[in-house]
Give the backbone structure.
Amino acid sequence: MQALKAEPGGRIVTDGSSQLVHALLAHDLVDELHLLVYPLTLGNGKRLFSGDVHKTFRLVSATPYSSGVVGLHYAH
């Protein structure tokens, strides 16, 4: 995966693939996260972050929308 990121362009963008996101996080290939937080609880489901990966990101911006959804942008 490191070779893929090293290719010209250098950007890997994914939308909604939890398995790919887990793999990218595990290989330290995530530089930014753009998350949408919805004001509801489900009780269970797929996890975005697995318990065996620890990364520190800093909040770049938070954008609240009239629907109650909040857009969060984090950088590594």
Notes: The mean pLDDT is 85. The first strand starts at residue 32 and ends at 37.
